[in-house]
Each structure stands twice: as structure tokens, then as C-alpha cells.
Write a structure and sequence with these properties.
Elements lengths: L2 E4 L4 E4 L9 H5 L5 E3 L9 E7 L8 E9 L7 E3 L5 H4 L11 E5 L2 E6 L13 H7 L1 H6 L2
Parallel strand pairs: 2-4
Antiparallel strand pairs: 1-2, 3-6, 4-5, 7-8
């Protein structure tokens, strides 16, 4: 998560993922769960916000009017993806494809490394993903 922008009528959670990574909310009004990778304390404050990407297009959103725990800059958010999401992702606006991680019970695996528009693997070490995904496993996401 990059930052939270509080407007007069809406609050926006700006993330570094966008419609190129997950087009289904824009095309089909599809719902994908969004939650912090590290679960906060019980009773932590919540906000209602649009979760939007950095592409600066009107369709660059992952969720609209979504209630979620109030995120902090730099916090990692996990977005559930379903079949076909990866094949619908693209490198629009020269954005790289995100890595794909499969989570089942208390196990996870990197199934596709991050790739740039030319198909080159980008450096995102799996060890770093293990730390970042620690609490997703426990939540059954």
C-alpha cells in the first residue's frame, strides 16, 4: 500500500497494483477479497475506501466502497485472485506482471516470478515473499 488519500466525498487507498494486474473488477464488477498480509489487532480501526492503482485511468480500481482495516503506508495487502486472473493480466503502461503465489493451508509456493513486459524475470527473492506471506497462511485466505 502506497498511501491513503482522504477526499471530501471519498477515501482512496492507493496501492502499487492496478487494473493491468487484475482487470475483473473493472470489466465485470467482480469482488476479490482484500486484506492485510499481517492481521491487525482485534478491534483495529476500519475505513471505507476505494482501493485504486497508480495507472491514472478511471477503471484503475481493485475495489469500490470497500470496508477494510485502515492500512498504513508500506503495509502489504493480499488480493485474492481466481482462475483466469493471471491470463487476463497485462503489461499495460509498461507495468510489470506481478509474481503469483499459491497459498493452501499452511503452505505457499511461488508459481510465477514477476516478469517485465519483455518476459524477463525480475528480482523478487522467494525468501522475502515468505516473510511477507506469513500471516496469510494462518488466515486461510
Amino acid at each position: 500500500m502506497l498511501y491513503v488519500k482522504h477526499g471530501e466525498a471519498k477515501t482512496f487507498v492507493i496501492v502499487d497494483a492496478g487494473m493491468n494486474d487484475l482487470i475483473r473488477p473493472t470489466l465485470y464488477d467482480a469482488h476479490h477479497d482484500i486484506r492485510p498480509v499481517r492481521e491487525g489487532a482485534v478491534g483495529a480501526p476500519r475505513i471505507t475506501a476505494d482501493v485504486v492503482g497508480p495507472v491514472c485511468e478511471s477503471g484503475d480500481f481493485l475495489a469500490l466502497d470497500r470496508s477494510l482495516p485502515a492500512p498504513q503506508p508500506g503495509e502489504l495487502l493480499a488480493v485474492s485472485r481466481r482462475r483466469l486472473c493471471a491470463v487476463q493480466a497485462g503489461t499495460y503502461n509498461t507495468r510489470a506482471l506481478v509474481p503469483e503465489v499459491l497459498v493452501r493451508a499452511n503452505e505457499w509456493a511461488l508459481v510465477a516470478a514477476a516478469r517485465d513486459g519483455g518476459g524477463t524475470d525480475r528480482a523478487r527473492p522467494p525468501a522475502a515473499l515468505a516473510v511477507k506471506l506469513h500471516n496469510i497462511v494462518a488466515s486461510g485466505f
